[in-house]
């Protein structure tokens, strides 16, 4: 039995609450069980200097954890002068995941910045952030469309993410911290609503995993992401 009493293929309780930020063009508070992430989308006029004149836009992301998102207080990274390697890796992952489903030319020479702030962490913060960030991005694009700022469909598909792992020899879906901290294998899957694979991150924590175990994790991820996409669709009704 998993620590959370869930079945191996069972997600944590998931909620996606839109419009939680008064000022952002798009926002979503996403909860994967006890992991809570606030995602806001901000429209910025213009693009990075290396994109100027190319007639296309950009979607980027920043990620951070509040000092008491975990059991012990951690210092804000701004006090150290730069984000940690983990933070940089996660925010790049979020940006890549969102750009995979965005028509950057249809966006025009504008940038949308997605801020993902972890309020409370219990495993799977990056996967929750990607899933909630899509909702915030979609609402930002809807805001732009209502003001005739975009003429074409910019968002091509859904994108969501989920973690899977081998815990006590069993492939399981959506690991919380109690499982993630001791899992033999830990993997993150990012996929589109139509089943396309954006990114897979998988690591063995000791004993290497097999092809069969990888396929089992892939099957769990596909089913889990399909459910997350359905929740995204319900959230934006």
From TrEMBL:
Broadest EC class assigned to this enzyme: transferase
Family matches, as PROSITE patterns: RIBONUCLEASE_PH
BP terms from Gene Ontology: rRNA 3'-end processing; rRNA catabolic process; tRNA processing
Xref: HAMAP family: RNase_PH (MF_00564)
Pfam families membership: RNase_PH, RNase_PH_C
PANTHER family documented for this protein: EXOSOME COMPLEX COMPONENT, EXOSOME COMPLEX COMPONENT RRP41
Domain Exoribonuclease phosphorolytic stretches: 10-140, 159-223
A molecular function (GO) term: tRNA binding
Protein name: Ribonuclease PH
Highest taxon of the lineage: Bacteria
Keywords attached to this entry: Nucleotidyltransferase, RNA-binding, rRNA processing, Transferase, tRNA processing, tRNA-binding
UniProt function note: Phosphorolytic 3'-5' exoribonuclease that plays an important role in tRNA 3'-end maturation. Removes nucleotide residues following the 3'-CCA terminus of tRNAs; can also add nucleotides to the ends of RNA molecules by using nucleoside diphosphates as substrates, but this may not be physiologically important. Probably plays a role in initiation of 16S rRNA degradation (leading to ribosome degradation) during starvation.
Quaternary state and interactors: Homohexameric ring arranged as a trimer of dimers.
Origin species: Methyloraptor flagellatus
Family (UniProt): Belongs to the RNase PH family.
Catalytic activity: tRNA(n+1) + phosphate = tRNA(n) + a ribonucleoside 5'-diphosphate
Transferase in keyword set: yes
UniProt entry tagged with the keyword RNA-binding: yes
Organism lineage: Bacteria, Pseudomonadati, Pseudomonadota, Alphaproteobacteria, Hyphomicrobiales
């Amino acid at each position: 039995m998993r620590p959370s009493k869930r079945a191996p293929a069972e997600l944590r309780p998931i909620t996606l609450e839109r419009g939680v930020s008064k000022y952002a063009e798009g926002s979503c508070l996403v909860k994967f069980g006890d992991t809570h992430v606030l995602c806001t989308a901000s429209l910025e006029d213009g693009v990075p200097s290396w994109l100027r004149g190319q007639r296309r836009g950009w979607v980027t992301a920043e990620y951070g954890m509040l000092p008491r998102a975990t059991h012990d207080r951690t210092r804000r990274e701004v006090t150290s002068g730069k984000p940690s390697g983990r933070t940089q890796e996660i925010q790049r992952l979020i940006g890549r995941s969102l750009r995979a489903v965005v028509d950057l030319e249809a966006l025009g020479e504008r940038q949308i910045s997605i801020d993902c702030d972890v309020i409370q962490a219990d495993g799977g913060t990056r996967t929750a952030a990607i899933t909630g960030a899509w909702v915030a991005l979609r609402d930002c694009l809807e805001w732009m469309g209502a003001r005739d700022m975009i003429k074409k469909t910019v968002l091509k598909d859904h994108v969501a993410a989920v973690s899977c792992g081998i815990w006590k020899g069993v492939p399981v879906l959506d690991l919380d911290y109690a499982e993630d901290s001791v899992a033999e294998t830990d993997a993150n899957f990012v996929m589109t609503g139509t089943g396309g694979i954006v990114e897979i991150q998988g690591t063995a924590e000791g004993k290497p995993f097999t092809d069969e175990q990888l396929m089992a994790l892939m099957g769990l991820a596909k089913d889990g992401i399909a459910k997350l996409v359905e929740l995204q669709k319900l959230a934006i009704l």
